[in-house]
Design a protein that fits this description.
The chain has 319 residues and is α/β, with parallel strands linked by helices. It has a single domain, classed as UDP-N-acetylmuramoyl-L-alanine:D-glutamate ligase, CATH 3.40.1190.20. It is 29% helix and 31% strand. It contains ten helices and 16 strands. The strands form three sheets. Strands 5-4-1-8-9-12-13-14-15-16 form a ten-stranded mixed beta sheet, sandwiched between helices. Strands 3-2-6-7 form a four-stranded mixed beta sheet. It has a two-stranded antiparallel sheet with strand order 10-11. α3 packs parallel to α4. The longest helix is centred in the last third of the chain and has 14 residues. The N and C termini lie far apart (46 Å).
Length: 319
């Protein structure tokens, strides 16, 4: 048995999903942080383990715990809360665009409790599944008190919630304070567009790096991702695309992409190679539904090379 000398703490929310694809029957299953955990378990270096840190509604606690407990090399740090667990209905308009409805309302972390739960972790992946996992003050406190690399997928920080549960895009006005707490930040292209609309929003990814992160990633669905980073005193932006894009159910692909990107960076590969791996593994999720069985599906994907479906193309420019 391989000794686990390092630990990645993954913070997020377990969600019971109801997915309504275009022209197909609805699909129900567990998602949320489960996608990140499964991807990390399938692709992290052998000497890394996963600590799952989540608050779970008492109505679905045992079911969620059972799903996470079935994922290998995971240590669970789950907290029961009295609120109903989060449930999401995703209604797709096409292969990538969707309307999202949230019910339930798991409350966020207190900074001290979260610090205790992450004690001993060498790196932290914050996946803002609901956007309510922790507030800015708690995040800043966490950043001061935890000596670990912090990777953040900021997805739902850009989503508000209407009274009927509809998730609606919103501008993150205090984005500089949020982003200053992250070593690596991930968003999709719609979220980056919202970011540029803030009162002091960035014009380019170089402006995002100036706010504090060392690496900024923008995922672009079937077109791959853009990664900005600094190397030898230069700021570089790389477009990393799949040469043979695939179609299917994209639910969870962004969560998987982030877990793989985070893990490959922890493994010491370069930013572009890490993004290539993330593209390949996320694409493999398109023909799989939900978290159950996902580890085995993703473990079959070649991380550092491959042919056919998994070919990549990279274009690098200097800013």
């Amino acid at each position: 048995m391989t000794a686990r000398s390092h630990t990645l703490g993954i913070v997020g929310t377990m969600v019971l999903d109801r997915i309504v694809p275009v022209d197909r029957e609805p699909i129900e299953g567990w998602g949320g942080i489960g996608y990140s955990v499964a991807a990390a378990a399938a692709t992290l270096p052998a000497n890394w383990g996963v600590r799952v840190v989540a608050r779970v509604g008492e109505d679905l606690f045992h079911e969620a715990e059972g799903v996470l407990a079935s994922i290998p090399r995971c240590e669970l740090r789950l907290t029961t809360v009295p609120e109903p667990n989060n449930r999401v209905e995703l209604i797709y308009q096409d292969g990538e665009r969707r309307t999202e409805y949230l019910s339930g309302g798991v409350s966020g972390w207190d900074a001290s409790d979260l610090v205790d739960a992450l004690l001993g972790c060498d790196a932290v992946l914050l996946n803002f599944i609901s956007g309510h996992e922790l507030g800015l003050a708690a995040l800043e406190d966490l950043r001061r008190r935890v000596e670990a690399t912090v990777y953040a997928d900021v997805h739902s920080l850009f989503l508000g919630t209407e009274p009927d549960g509809t998730r609606i895009p919103r501008v993150l006005e205090d984005w500089r304070a949020w982003y200053a707490c992250f070593d690596v930040v991930q968003m999709n292209e719609d979220e980056f567009s919202l970011l540029t609309r803030a009162s002091d929003g960035p014009e380019t990814l170089e402006d995002v790096l100036e706010a504090g992160p060392g690496i900024a990633c923008v995922t672009r669905g079937s077109r791959g991702a853009t990664v900005a980073y600094r190397a030898q005193g230069r700021t570089l932006v790389s477009e990393v695309t799949l040469l043979h894009p695939r179609s299917g159910d994209p639910t969870g692909c962004g969560d998987i992409w982030g877990a793989v990107m985070c893990g490959r960076l922890l493994a010491g590969v370069g930013e572009v190679r890490a993004a290539e791996s993330a593209n390949r593994v996320a694409a493999a999720n398109l023909d799989h539904h939900g978290v159950v069985g996902l580890v085995d599906r993703l473990a079959d994907v070649p991380l550092d090379g491959g042919g056919g479906t998994y070919l990549d193309s990279s274009t690098e420019v200097e800013l």
